[in-house]
Amino acid sequence: MTVSAQNHVAFVTGAAQGLGLGISMHLLELGWRVTLFDRDQEAGDEAMIAMSDAQRDRALFISGDVANEADVKLAIQQTVDRFGRIDGVVNNAGIANPHSGSVETLEWDQWQRVINVNLGGAFLVTKHATQHLREHKGAIVNITSTRAFQSEANTESYAASKGGVVALTHALAVSLAGDVRVNAVAPGWIEVGDWQKSANKSQPHHSEIDKSQHPVGRVGTPNDIAQAVSFLLDAEKSGFMTGETIRIDGGMTHKMIYAE
Prior knowledge:
By secondary structure, this protein is α/β, with parallel strands linked by helices. About 45% of the residues lie in helices and about 15% in strands. It has a seven-stranded parallel beta sheet with strand order 3-2-1-4-5-6-7, sandwiched between helices.
């Protein structure tokens, strides 16, 4: 357990599986106490069972929807009731499938749901956690995506939501200046198949083409992102950083690709 992590509490959204679970487990290993907030009760139960006794003593799973303000407000209060404080927030929850069909057929309700979860959820959690973060000069890390900077066709709602997270990050950094640092991580291709609940778990397999798209020669893992998140939450290591978005994509967005 690191000195900086002793007694510190993190609130992580979308934390029951995938990238959010990877981040949560990394923080637990560093000594943080962690609330895992997620809609999927089944995945949350599995995540808690898989933890060691020591990790489970420092973890709290709460089921709820980041796009529902009542759920968010209650979960923040339950975290403070259990752990007494909040030092860090990781706004990771999101609708992960970027493909939504053509802009001409995309339903308004579908567009709104993606924006409400991916962008609105980060706002709601920040709104209700900020008073607690101020007390301890805490930090927020928003999980955006490299799709905030580049796109495939028919991904408008996802791209817009993730671009909004980048803008929300620097806006909050200025609004909360002096009290709360706010940064973001933009993952590229991160393999999470083996971090799903048992009903959806898959064994990753990546072709040589998959790997060669990345200058580092491989697809990313949740640990690649978790390491950056813990760095940004740690005021001793990243105290001079706020408003920044760090791309972690194995160099993929810097590699020029020509159609043959």
